[in-house]
Give the backbone structure.
Amino acid sequence: MHRVQARAWLAPALAEARAGPAEGGIPVGAALHGAEGTLLGRGRTRRAQDGDPSTRVVLLDDPECAGLMRGFVRDHPDLWNEDIGE
């Protein structure tokens, strides 16, 4: 997969991740694409918003994602530690 294609496929997940803190949650998003690139689904971790630990997704190893997470942990350590435990 080319980097440009990978970034395009990552964009909906990043948008979901950015929406999480605006709702009082954690900045972790996800997107599922079909083989041809069709967006099949998207979502975000809603553990804090819904009080349900089963509503989680996994963060990809991407510099933009990592930066978003570092900033969130720095700015909201209480919510991060509540979500993952210290």
Summary: The longest strand covers residues 39-44. The CA atoms of residues 3 and 9 lie 10 Å apart. DSSP finds four helices and two strands in the chain. The chain has one domain: 3-84.
